[in-house]
Structure of Mitochondrial tRNA methylthiotransferase CDK5RAP1:
Amino acid sequence: GPGQRPAGRGVALPAGPDLRHFLRAAAAGQPGSSPELPPEAGSTPGAPKVYLETYGCQMNVNDTEIAWAILQKNGYARTKELDEADVVLLVTCSVREKAEQAIWNRLQHLRALKARRPQARAPLRIGILGCMAERLKEEILHREKLVDVVAGPDAYRDLPRLLAVAESGQQAANVLLSLDETYADILPVQTSAGGTTAFVSIMRGCDNMCSYCIVPFTRGRERSRPIASILQEVRMLSDQGVKEVTLLGQNVNSFRDLSEVQFKSVAAPGLSRGFSTVYKAKQGGLRFAHLLDQVSRIDPEMRIRFTSPHPKDFPDEASVLQLIQERHNICKQLHLPAQSGSTRVLEAMRRGYTREAYLELVHHVRDSIPGVSLSSDFIAGFCGETEEDHQQTVSLLREVRYNVGFLFAYSMRQKTRAHHRLQDDVPADVKKRRLEQLIATFREEAARANAALVGQAQLVLVEGPSKRSASELCGRNDGNIKVIFPDAELEDAAECGAPGRAQPGDYVMVKVTSASSQTLRGVPLCRTTLSRAAASH
């Protein structure tokens, strides 16, 4: 494949995203730096202090937790204050040019910080981790002499050694991609605010090779984490009081755990009708439906979500859809990344489906899971996209009416098939106009979809105070739509106990009074539980 280098254990290659800056990821341009941190467990006085900053998708938030778990075991302390840090690590994103530019800009700021550091203190060490490290190792080391450590997504175990090399004044790098690294034995140290929701990585890499996508080259081949280690992590989160877990992978419904020998020869599932794939069907292993079934049984009061699936991997037997419909704690919400509404563009993107096949899947999903909430990703201005192709995407947005959308202008990435074979021929101003039209269309339709919920009672998992008003609380409904409601004394539906205010991690029944394209507002009715709400539904 293009850009291959013989690597130690395995050679890096194929994949495809669809995780597209999903959910509450640190927005590409803003440092999603260290949130509230627990007191340092077992860190010794005088331990080197590390400051971690996360850019890009939720995968990177998870990777930050893994890197920190490894460093913590090796005697590092963590700090929220940049000025206190001995080591600054940026977990980076390469999905678009803008995401990489944010890192180059941040490095200029760190250059000044490094220069200002008092002589009496050990020199500040700076590390670039993740996808940009993988994609641009040489350029980072040569262009920015201030970078001491470069570590790709499969090299986090090597961080203590790399930092030790950096201590001696040399630059240190490891961007080997692996065929089997899943960090299965490393329990990430959760740092998300409030501890109500958590993300659990179930696989790494991707084999889809969509023509626009850099992920195969930055995150390597697809490999799944053993189910036993995923269940262990979810149980631990349940014990800590976490109320919502999102299973995370670049392509979750091609998950297959091959670690248990007796399941190695199970037949590969068929693709959905009208879908094709560029890679050979994978034999054997325990599939995603089995994992989802097991995870949903751990805690009846814990909501389960997952992202991102690939439309082509919803098998006809629909066991995943059936589980979503049957289990009260699996959210009735699906991310179905379309990318375009034009069959011609979808073919150029190597997505493996036509517009018609995608729409058939949407109807099948809506028939199987009444009331399902749908989200999607779209790219405006891909190579060769005509005005007619663009209008087909506009009409797809109208026809499907998504509740949540992630829309971006196309950004050509080196190494991808599009870079080798296609022309990035849609002018920047045309991309911008098309993107604005897609966003406007999405918002109109989402506002209509959300307006249909006015007057209904929605079960909301409370995440904390609203950002805009301390007198209001904010949470999400089953469909992953933000719901804001007044913080008031509430009866508890489950007990005859005294009324009380809802806390983060509580479930509250809220009657929706108004809606926009982004949020629902309502009045709280009572505190309740997930099981009780499901039983009374």
